[in-house]
Each structure stands twice: as C-alpha cells, then as structure tokens.
TrEMBL record, chain A:
<keyword id="KW-1003">Cell membrane</keyword>
<dbReference type="InterPro" id="IPR003439">
    <property type="entry name" value="ABC_transporter-like_ATP-bd"/>
</dbReference>
<feature type="domain" description="ABC transporter">
    <location>
        <begin position="2"/>
        <end position="246"/>
    </location>
</feature>
<dbReference type="Pfam" id="PF00005">
    <property type="entry name" value="ABC_tran"/>
</dbReference>
<dbReference type="GO" id="GO:0016020">
    <property type="term" value="C:membrane"/>
</dbReference>
<dbReference type="InterPro" id="IPR027417">
    <property type="entry name" value="P-loop_NTPase"/>
</dbReference>
<dbReference type="InterPro" id="IPR017871">
    <property type="entry name" value="ABC_transporter-like_CS"/>
</dbReference>
UniProtKB/TrEMBL annotation, chain B:
<dbReference type="GO" id="GO:0005886">
    <property type="term" value="C:plasma membrane"/>
</dbReference>
<dbReference type="GO" id="GO:0055085">
    <property type="term" value="P:transmembrane transport"/>
</dbReference>
<keyword id="KW-0813">Transport</keyword>
<dbReference type="InterPro" id="IPR035906">
    <property type="entry name" value="MetI-like_sf"/>
</dbReference>
<comment type="similarity">
    <text>Belongs to the binding-protein-dependent transport system permease family.</text>
</comment>
<protein>
    <submittedName>
        <fullName>Phosphonate ABC transporter permease protein</fullName>
    </submittedName>
</protein>
<feature type="transmembrane region" description="Helical">
    <location>
        <begin position="200"/>
        <end position="219"/>
    </location>
</feature>
From TrEMBL, chain C:
<feature type="domain" description="ABC transmembrane type-1">
    <location>
        <begin position="75"/>
        <end position="258"/>
    </location>
</feature>
<dbReference type="GO" id="GO:0055085">
    <property type="term" value="P:transmembrane transport"/>
</dbReference>
<keyword id="KW-0472">Membrane</keyword>
<keyword id="KW-1133">Transmembrane helix</keyword>
<feature type="transmembrane region" description="Helical">
    <location>
        <begin position="215"/>
        <end position="232"/>
    </location>
</feature>
<feature type="transmembrane region" description="Helical">
    <location>
        <begin position="182"/>
        <end position="203"/>
    </location>
</feature>
<protein>
    <submittedName>
        <fullName>Phosphonate ABC transporter permease protein</fullName>
    </submittedName>
</protein>
Length: 256, 284, 266
C-alpha cells in the first residue's frame, strides 16, 4: 500500500531532520507515529504527499514512487491521498457541504472548480459523508460557526470525499477537548476497519495511540526507534521513544 | 453544543506577555529611531517655516481675509452664476467618475494582485509587478490625467483612464497584501487534495478575501471621489471640481464655493455612514 | 432524485443567482456610468497609446537638461513644504486627539466636537482649500503649506484618536490607579506605548503629502506642480518628462526611507 524506504531529509543542520526512515503502512489498519515534538513526525507525513520535498529515499504509493512524479502526475496522486490537519484548515467562510465537496474537485476540470459544478451523485455523497460523521444537520452552516470537534469531522468528511486509499492525519486531536477526541478517533478507527482505508496518524498522546493503533512507529530525533504491533508497545519502549536526547549540535531536544 | 475548546494543546505558544521581556537592545533601537526621526523632522520644519513667508508679506491681512472668506463660505452660501440643478449634475458626474474608476480599477487590480502575491506567484513576478506598481503610484493622479488628455483629448476618457491608472497601482498592492496575510496552511491544504490553481483561487482565496476586498475597494472609492474633484479642477475634466475651480478662481465667488463644499460634505457624510455600516457587516 | 439533492441544488442555485445578480447590477452600473460620463470603453484598450506617447515625448532631450537646476530646486522646496506641513499638523493633531479620544477626554461633548471638526477638515476637498487660501495668501509656498496642513490635520486627528482609543480604557485606568496625574498618565504611560503607531501614521502622511503637494502646486501655482504645468502647457515635453521622473524618484525614495524606518521600529 504505502512503503517508505530510506527517507532522509535535512533542513541545513536543523533539528527537524530525518535519517534513513523506513516503514510501511498496511491497508485497513490504523498506524500511529509517536515521538517527542520536533522528532520529525510532521516531516514524514508531509513528505508522503510531497508537501515537503525530501532529499533522498523512496516513497512507494501504489507501487509508484511519489518522488519521481511530474507536477500533473503528483496532483493526480494527491487526489487519492486524504489529509487532516491539527488546525482543520477548512475554508471557514463557506458552508460545511461546500467544504466537503472540495474533496472531489481534484479530479474535475478548471471550469468545474471555478463555477462549483458538481454532479448530483457527488452532492448526494457529500451529504451522506456529513451524515456519517454525525453532522447532517450542519450541512448549511458556515464552518466558522462550528466547534473544533465539528470542524475536524468536516475535515474528515472532506478527506473521504476524495475516495482516498490512505488518510494522513497530522495531530488531528491536538486542538480538541477529550470528548471530541474520542469522537474523532472512533471515526478514524471505523474508516480503517469498515472501509479498508489505511489511516496514518501523528500523535503525541501515548494513551490514545495504545487504544486506537494497530501498528505503532516510534520516532526519536529523526530516526525510527520502534516499529511494531501496538500491543507490543511496552513502557520500556515508550521510555525509549521519549528519552531525552542530545542531538549532534549538542542542544537538548526537548521532550514532550 | 459545547463551545470551541481549542485551548487544550497550544502550550508551545509563548503568551504575548509583559513588554519588559523585550530585550533592552531592541527597545533602544526603537527609541533611537523615533528620536532621530523626530529630530530630523523638527529640524526640517523649523528651517522651512521662516523661509515660507515671503518678504513684505502682510500675514495679518491675509489671515483676516482668510477668516472672512471662510465665514462667507460657511455662513452665507448662495448661488449666482450657476443653478443648483447644474451643480447637482456636476456632483453626479464626479460620483460617476469615482464609481467607474473604482470598478474598473478593482477588477484589473484583482488579477495583478493574484500575480503578485507571495502565496501563489514566483518571487520574480512579485518583485517585478510590485516595483512597477510603485512607480505608477509615485506619479500623482492629476499628472496621469493631464498626460492622457493630450493623447485622448480632454474629456471623460482621459479622466477615467488617468484615475484608473493610480487606482490599479494602489489596489494591486493592498489586495496582494491581504492575500499575503492568508494562512499558508489553507492553500497547502487545497494543494494536498490535488486541486488546480484556478480552483484554489476560486474556492479558497476568494471566500476569505471578500471582506478586505470590499473595505479596501470602498476606501479607494473615497480616494477616487477626492481625486475626481481635484482632477476636475486641475485638468479641466468636468464635474463639481471644475465648477469649484470656476467659482473660486474665475468668479471669485466664495458664496458659491460654500454651496459646493456643503454638497460635497453631504456626500462625504453619506459615505461615512456607508463605511460604518460596511465595517459592522464585514466584522461579523 | 431525492429531496436532499434537490436541497443542495437549491442552495447552489441560490448562491449562483446572487452572484449573477451582483454581476448584472455592476455591469449595468458600468454601462450607465459610462453613458453618463461619455466614457468609451475601447479607450481602455488604447492605454498603450498613452504609454507610447509618454515614452516618445517625455524622454528628456539635450535642451531639457538646462531645466535640471530649476526642477531640482522646486522639487526640494516641495518636499520641504510637505514635511513641514505634516510635522506641524502632527503636533496639533496629537493635542486634539488626546483631548478628543473617548478614553481620555474631559467631556464627551469635547470628543464629539473634535471628531466633527476633523471630519470637516478631511472632507473639504483639497481644491477648495487651495482656492480659498490662494485668494488670501496669494501665490506662494505658504498657500500650499496651509492647504496640506488642514487636510493632514483632519486626517491625523482621526488616526491618532483611533490609535489612542485602541490603547484601551483598562490600561489608562490601571495607570490612574497608581496615583498618576492626567499628564503623567499621558507622558509616561500612553505616549511611549503608541509612539511607534503614531510614527508610522506620520510617515504615511509625509509620503501622501509629497504626492499631493504636486496637485496643490498645480492649483496654487507653486512648487513642482507649477513648473510641470508650465512646461506641459508650453509643450516643453522633455522638461515635463524630467519633472515626472524627478517626482517618481522623490516619492519612491520617501517610500523606501519610510519603509526602512518602519522596519527599524518593528
């Protein structure tokens, strides 16, 4: 499904760099990346859909290397990769249904994008997705009037509108209260189990990772230090992932 | 529903905090800059003021005559050489001129702004367009109108094109600035979904831009109204400005000037009210 | 087709209808205004004629080099007048704004009077100022200075007042609670905090006044505006081009200096 091989990235000597990161994501599973902040979790996620161009390595998505694609091919590949953000990144002045429909614009023409032209089938699907995340009655609400948890659910519906094979979630619950956290994580888990979508999540809450993950990847200082089933995530392993580290520049990488 | 609860995670953000924590060196740089600028301005002003009053100039007499004229203007406004209807028409012309130039200017400037915002355009294009616009902005509107009145002949065409020139340069800058203020995450998100540039502009940038687009365009309308009057007077391009020029420097009739100033003030009042309403709408 | 889809379709049709309506209204207003003014849209397509004409005629030639001295002198004069007018207006405005700001004003009536006064000054067209002043003060720099002064006074009073009001009532009250007198609150608490904002307004106004000084000069027969008019009307386009060039250089350098100061202040 998705395989990352020997991904290496450096921001000219900055702490947020990756060294020889390799892992793979299986379909229908929740894979969680944990690690201290600044360890490079976000960099990995953004390298997968090439929002950040990496320096070296291989990112195989459906057996094609994302790094070798030209602009048009990359755009087409991105259409099948959903992404969810900590700050939701919705278009707040627009309604929930419009935001969800944005998910299917990637495959449509310029004209459709400019004049918001959607097929009836797509409109129906968008509404169903909103109902699926429990926001059916908020379809015509401006997103700026929704709560954080609701915004994130609109974000999920938008990602699903892309009919993604994989969903990348960059700290999806970092800005949410405990109740919304449970709602959002339950939805993400459900997508993997029932829809067979691969879900790759960046988290810094270990307890959540333990509860929801099938597979856990531990990152510390840009390196993979744990890559195994979630049930094998022992306290010793966690301590190892979150240990304080003196990196090459000698400055302290601060722990979570 | 539970109200927004975004407080849980943002622990890394340092609070805007006490001003004293600004490094001393930094505070000093500010203080020195302000002090130096003030000294230079004061020096220039003090050197200039005495040289401005010409020799044998009767300042007292001038001031008396000035207050006299102000009194005539505001306390005894009435018409002599023209009719109220004519003036109303002239005011309408100036308003139309301001409206038309703002409309054309904002439409053209929108596309220039798209091509010169850091969010979408490459650096060389941003720098190129912005410097070109800075040069156009540097030339006063009235000079543009004068130049075009030679090419097109004196009249509406020259006035519209001349004022539009300046409007485009001004609006391009402020529109591009408001696009630059958009969070980069929004555009990145749309790119991550594989959207084309046209779709990103239409679906993400425009919805966010509408409030600032409206308020800047309105501000430019106010400026264009003032410019329309000035151009009418200085380049003979018609409108209430031309009437103002005729009454004051041809007939020397300040009673009449008073009427026109009152008319312009009345329209300005209308604009203030609209701008107040607009602000309360866009601030929702 | 189920009712949900119909509802979505209605939503999009409504949005589209609103947009179309706005475009149609603006289009009709455009046509109406064009007819009312006698403006021909195709002249927009002839904009390049103006540029071409400008380039052909406004290139300073050998003869126009003789005007260099006069132009530089007038340019410098115009700049000085613009700066002096802004500075003087800023001083008076600061006083008016402190007395008039809602957070500091001794009486709310005073605040409203000052507000109305500044609005009046701002909205009287600069043409009217120039003409009235020209009549009494005749053709000299003082006229231009005063015209700019009154406009700037109206503008800066409003701007300063808003800056002071943004500073907030709580901070003023907190300072007063420490037992500071009215003057101490202003001098020790308020002014240092808002100095940067006031400075950027002043710089902005200087930029603006350098440009407006050309217009005022044209109307009152002084400074750079006057000599432009003189050369232009007497068809000495080379010299007029030189004036335009010098104005560009002046305005752009004032803008650059003010950007530099702005960066030092941030």
């Amino acid at each position: 499904m998705l395989t990352v091989n020997h991904l290496t990235k450096s921001y000219d000597g900055e702490k947020m760099s990756l060294t020889d990161v390799s892992f793979s994501v299986r379909p229908g599973e929740v894979t969680v990346i944990i690690g201290p902040s600044g360890a490079g979790k976000t960099t990995i996620l953004r390298s997968i859909n090439q929002l950040i161009r990496d320096d070296d390595g291989e990112i195989l998505f459906d057996d094609t290397d994302m790094r070798q694609l030209n602009r048009r091919q990359l755009r087409q590949a991105r259409c099948r990769i959903g992404m969810i953000f900590q700050n939701y990144n919705l278009i707040e002045p627009l309604t929930a249904i419009e935001n969800v429909l944005h998910g299917c614009l990637g495959t449509k023409s310029n004209l459709a994008g400019i004049f918001s032209m959607y097929r009836n089938r797509e409109k129906e699907e968008a509404l169903q997705l909103l109902q699926k995340v429990g926001l059916g009655e908020f379809a015509y609400q401006q997103c700026r009037n929704l709560s954080g948890g609701q915004k994130q659910r609109v974000g999920i519906a938008r990602a699903l509108m892309q009919r993604p094979k994989i969903i990348l979630c960059d700290e999806p619950i970092a800005s949410l209260d405990p109740k919304s956290t449970v709602t959002v994580m339950d939805i993400l888990r459900d997508l993997a189990v029932n829809d067979g979508i691969s879900v790759l999540i960046n988290l810094h809450q270990v307890d959540i990772a333990r509860k929801y993950a099938d597979h856990v990847i531990g990152i510390n200082n840009g390196q993979v230090v744990f890559d195994n089933r979630a049930k094998l995530l022992s306290d010793v392993a966690i301590a190892n992932i979150y240990q304080k580290n003196v990196n090459t520049e000698g400055s302290l990488v601060h722990e979570f | 529903m539970i109200k927004p609860e975004n407080q849980v995670s943002i622990p890394t953000r340092i609070p805007a905090g006490p001003r004293l924590s600004i490094p001393l060196r930094f505070r000093d740089r500010r203080r020195v800059t302000i002090l130096l600028t003030l000294i230079v301005l004061a020096y220039v002003t003090l050197m200039t003021l005495p040289t401005m009053i010409p020799n044998h100039f009767k300042l007292g007499a001038a001031l008396v005559s000035f207050t006299e004229n102000i009194k005539i203007m505001f306390l005894q406004p009435h018409l002599a050489n023209t009719t109220f209807v004519t003036l109303l028409g002239a005011l309408g012309q100036s308003i139309l001129l301001a409206f038309l130039t703002t409309l054309i200017g904002s439409a053209i400037a929108f596309f220039f702004a798209l091509a010169s915002t850091r969010r979408l355009a490459p650096t060389y294009l941003v720098l190129g367009i912005q410097s070109f616009m800075a040069v156009i902005r540097a030339i006063p509107t009235v000079l543009w109108v004068l130049i075009y009145s030679v090419v097109f002949g004196l009249g509406a065409n020259a006035a519209v094109v001349g004022i539009t020139f300046h409007s485009v340069a001004y609006l391009t800058k402020v529109y591009a600035d408001s696009m630059d203020e958009l969070s980069p995450g929004i555009i990145e998100t749309m790119q991550a979904m594989g959207l084309k540039k046209s779709a990103i502009i239409r679906q993400a940038i425009i919805p966010y831009l509408i409030p600032s687009y409206l308020s800047w365009t309105f501000i430019r309308f106010e400026i264009n109204f003032a410019d329309a009057i000035a151009v009418g007077a200085a380049a003979g391009a018609g409108g209430i400005g031309y009437q103002l020029f005729m009454s004051s420097s041809f007939y020397f009739n300040f009673h009449e000037v008073g009427v026109m100033v009152y008319m312009i003030l009345a329209f300005a009042l209308v604009l203030e009210i609209i701008s107040y309403r607009l602000r309360s709408v866009t601030h929702q | 087709m189920n009712s949900d889809v119909q509802q979505i379709n209605r939503f999009f049709s409504k949005k589209r209808f609103r947009l179309t309506l706005i475009i149609v209204i603006l289009g009709m207003a455009y046509v109406g205004a064009s007819i009312g003014l006698g403006f021909q849209t195709h002249s927009l397509l002839n904009v390049q004629d103006g540029i071409a004409w400008l380039i052909q005629n406004f290139i300073p030639n050998e003869a126009s080099k003789g005007y260099w001295n006069e132009i530089l002198q007038q340019l410098f004069r115009t700049f000085l007048v613009a700066v002096a007018a802004t500075t003087c207006a800023a001083i008076v405005s600061l006083f008016l704004a402190i007395v008039g700001a809602k957070t500091l004003t001794p009486a709310i009536t005073v605040s409203w009077v000052i507000r109305a006064f500044s609005s009046l000054l701002r909205n009287i067209p600069i043409v009217a100022w120039a003409m009235i002043l020209l009549f009494s003060f005749k053709q000299n720099d003082l006229t231009g200075f005063l015209a700019l002064f009154f406009m700037t006074l109206g503008f800066l009073t409003r701007a300063f007042m808003e800056t002071i009001e943004d500073f907030g009532t709580e901070k003023v009250q907190a300072l007063q609670a420490t037992g500071a007198t009215y003057l101490q609150v202003i001098a020790q608490g308020l002014l240092p905090e808002i100095a940067v904002a006031l400075m950027s307004w002043i710089l902005y106004m200087i930029e603006n006044n350098v440009r407006d000084a050309t217009l005022v000069g044209l109307l009152t027969g002084t400074g750079i505006g006057f000599i432009f008019n003189l050369y232009f009307k007497s068809l000495r386009y080379g010299a007029a081009g030189l004036v335009v060039l010098s104005v560009i250089i002046l305005v752009v350098s004032v803008e650059l200096i003010s950007n530099l100061i702005g960066r030092l202040l941030s």
